[in-house]
Amino acid sequence: MQSRKFFFVKDKDTKEKLVKFALCQTFVLEAPLVVVACTDSRIKRRYGARGENLYTICNVAVALQNLMLQAIELGLGACWIGAFDEKKVREILKVPDYLIPIAIVPVGFPAESPETPPRVNKIEAIEYR
User: Is the Cα torsion angle 55, 50, 5, 13 positive or negative in sign?
Assistant: First the structure.
């Protein structure tokens, strides 16, 4: 369906503005590349509300997961940021109305290699029927 659009941000001034509206997460500025991922609501023409409210988010999520896995394979780091002021990000990047920013992903060279955070127990996550 390809109901997604990515803005690749390398400009320092633009990244500074993004930091301001991403809860001052300053590591965004340190990344050589910042990806702003958007859903594309024009899919509703074909798939209705479910396409707009679900398929687009799934499309972006899957694409970003692949991007992040590839970054790790290349020795880079990436971090999904969902906490940001959507309206301000729209203004900064001049995002058209039919696109909705849902994630900011800085990609760069990690300063550290933190341990994997604890995961939910599989008994809580999986139910057999």
Answer: negative
